[in-house]
Amino acid sequence: MDGVIADTEAQFMDWYEKEHGIRVPREERLGVPEQDGFPDKTAVRRYVYTPGFFRTIPVMPGAIEAVKTLMEDYEVFIVSAATEFPQCLAEKLEWLNEYFPFISWTNIVLCGDKSIIDTDYLIDDHCKNLDFCKGKPIMFNGSHNVNQLHHTRVMNWDEVLALFAQEELSV
Amino acid sequence: MDGVIADTEAQFMDWYEKEHGIRVPREERLGVPEQDGFPDKTAVRRYVYTPGFFRTIPVMPGAIEAVKTLMEDYEVFIVSAATEFPQCLAEKLEWLNEYFPFISWTNIVLCGDKSIIDTDYLIDDHCKNLDFCKGKPIMFNGSHNVNQLHHTRVMNWDEVLALFAQEELSV
């Protein structure tokens, strides 16, 4: 969800700018872990525990249409590491209901560790999830993961669709 | 969670008694789907959407000590069908933090359909989850499931521990 269908980095930049009056561009965070990506090192950690943060994240460009397209051929589940931040659970469901109302509650998983999730593919922005996933891992590009190069990488949702179109051809 | 570590049926009986002044014993619900288990057929459906319902469910007898014992040899995950009832998400986490504080947020999964959960065992009170699980299914006895006989059944948490002790002997 975060960093894949939700543009969590854009939200960090927006909230940081609101608080500190400075817009720290993505280029300055390349290869930097998310929590260290801004001059005020307490910011990210504070934001993710603030009510409203997860409810108001902008949708990742192209995500809504691309997920709809994938659902024509695949059963799509939203699997979000969320139980670390109890206040975000309801916000994440409300967010999904607003932007992805076509995804049923049956296909939403709010979890911690994703190691027990068994899907044919996993699109994620973190190696901690992709390295041990049971299906094919797909790294969704984000500033923090640009140096983690051992998984197939997609730069955006157009590239996700292109990848799956190719998968279908190769079956 | 419900019907396994949380005695959801006891909570239904308590809430029904509070509302209607009648205690409908377990014996009258044998083989009856949960939502049909009380004379007022609207009751169960109303209760599960009522704030506070999930937060105040009594713990299943023996569950806390048994889960602690299992954690000596197994990695235990709590996997709860919860996304159908958005108001219950935070309540379920709070409930777990109160009664099972030794279970990390990393090992909590709040989901819909459990079909993408891949564990070696699944202890559950519903065939809809057990029939398609990837590991060994274990049916936790409940009034509503007494006629569903195609899975190994445990009557209580003592029997869960006995079953796993036997599993270890047979390895």
From TrEMBL, chains A, B:
GO terms for molecular function: 5'-nucleotidase activity. GO terms for biological process: pyrimidine deoxyribonucleotide catabolic process. It holds the Pfam family NT5C. The active site is at 2 (proton donor). SUPFAM superfamilies: HAD-like. Belongs to the 5'(3')-deoxyribonucleotidase family. PANTHER family: 5'(3')-DEOXYRIBONUCLEOTIDASE (PTHR16504). This is 5'(3')-deoxyribonucleotidase. It comes from Pedobacter cryoconitis.
